[in-house]
Amino acid sequence: MNLEKNFKETAEKKAFDIKHRNTINFNMGRYHTSVDKGLQQYDDHDLARSRAAYIKTQAIEHLDEHLLEFEENFQKRGGKVIWAENQSQALHAIDKIFKAHEAKMVVKSKSMTTEEIHLNEYLERNQVEVVETDLGEYIVQLAGQKPYHIVTPAMHLSRQDVSKIFEEKLNTPPTDDATELTLTARKLLREKYTQAKIGITGGNFLVADVGGVAITENEGNARLSVSFPKVHIAIVGIEKVIPKMEDLDLFWSLLSTSGTGQRLTVYNSIISGPKQDDETDGPEEMYVVLLDNGRTKLLADAAKRQGLNCIRCGACLNACPVYKNIGGHTYNTTYSGPIGSIITPHYAGMEKFKHLSYASSLCGACATVCPVKIDIPKQLLLNRHQSVQEKLPSRAERIGFKLWKRGMKKRRRMDMVGAGLKNMVFKRFFKKTWGKRREDIVVADKSFGQLWKAQQKAAAKKPKSKKSK
């Protein structure tokens, strides 16, 4: 599949889908109202962002040290660490755990890293029942879709849409009562926790000095996915590490405010290993899969590694005018929106996903709201530059810009081509892009330079008036 062509075609359809736009505008409106209220808790929000940016930058600069510290402290409490260089290694390691425990069902809390390695599809191919326990994830799973948004997977669906999905998949009566829909999902999911041998979560942060996985949520499903099953597997990107537990005081509040507008999310947990002898609940075994999958490749590029600072709050998606028009599924990637556009080409290949870095107006709204001050517009430009250096644009595009460059460097070359030929070229080559929804580009018969010369020439020919005596 040509991903760039598919992106452009899908983007055009979504941009003119009125129902989609109304749903997104409604949900985005609620989000912005909540965030405006949440920001009132800060005396100096910009200072908090600067501090968070500094801590994350330092953590990424010393990533190897912090990861080894995390591993050492986590193993002290009986946890096991699996280093996965890529998707294949991660899936193979997880498969071994499932086979060792003869597990045929798993309960999962919301995790973008599991989406990244396509874990659900892999387990289902191996006859394992996968149950998403986050309400939004559960809804899109029933609908046979991928998450629409990093934080709110079902943002694109209205209550009526959810009711229809439940009616078709769960045989429930139609209703647009959000509480009733939530209770229906809760009732069906509760029994799954007690039946599953394995629970899988992601991790919002890896806390190096205590060897803990910090999980932030609003529904409590992650805690249930950890507490009931005998085995807990946390799959976390290596960039999620922070040095100290005291840093969570800053990051938890920034994450919740930027992500949902809350002062703090309802549930915040730090899990530092399997159940200890003096503890009454928790898993008997716990594994943390440290996922690379392209992250060290991005880390090696000093100019672009800033993208690893991301804490996955989703604020840049909510601020982006492109995302709000074309939607999350259009990107056809795990991480959509501005942050997805800067990291996906490095995680999944610049050749396949270079077009995402061009899907931006560079307005800077994303950088303005980022809680760790990632300069996303600059990163997008660096990706574009890299794609050109690697000669990834089409041959026609490269030739076109080469001719444009030659013409622009000398005015004489531009003037050699008449206005009629220029207009014909614009009409032919830009008809399906610029001209599809705009009037044709029309070049004046004479350039400014030609008009200026003509005016100066005419002025020189005018007879000079005689001065009166």
List the main descriptive attributes of the protein structure presented here:
alpha/beta, Rossmann fold, 6-stranded parallel sheet, 10 strands
Write up this protein.
The protein has 469 residues and is α/β, with parallel strands linked by helices. Strand 5 and strand 6 (212-217) form a beta hairpin. The termini are far apart. It has a 6-stranded parallel beta sheet, sandwiched between helices. The longest helix has 21 residues, at 18-38. Among the domains are: 63-141 and 178-293, 3-Layer(aba) Sandwich (Rossmann fold), CATH 3.40.50.10420; 395-460, no CATH class. The chain has helices at 3-15, 18-38, 45-61, 63-76, 87-101, 112-116, 119-125, 135-142, 159-170, 178-195, 221-227, 248-260, 295-299, 315-319, 321-326, 337-348, 350-353, 365-369, 376-389, 395-409, 411-416, 419-429, 448-461; strands at 80-84, 105-108, 129-132, 198-201, 205-207, 212-217, 231-237, 241-242, 267-271, 285-291. Helix 2 packs antiparallel against helix 12 (248-260) and helix 16 packs parallel to helix 19. It is elongated and about 110 Å long.
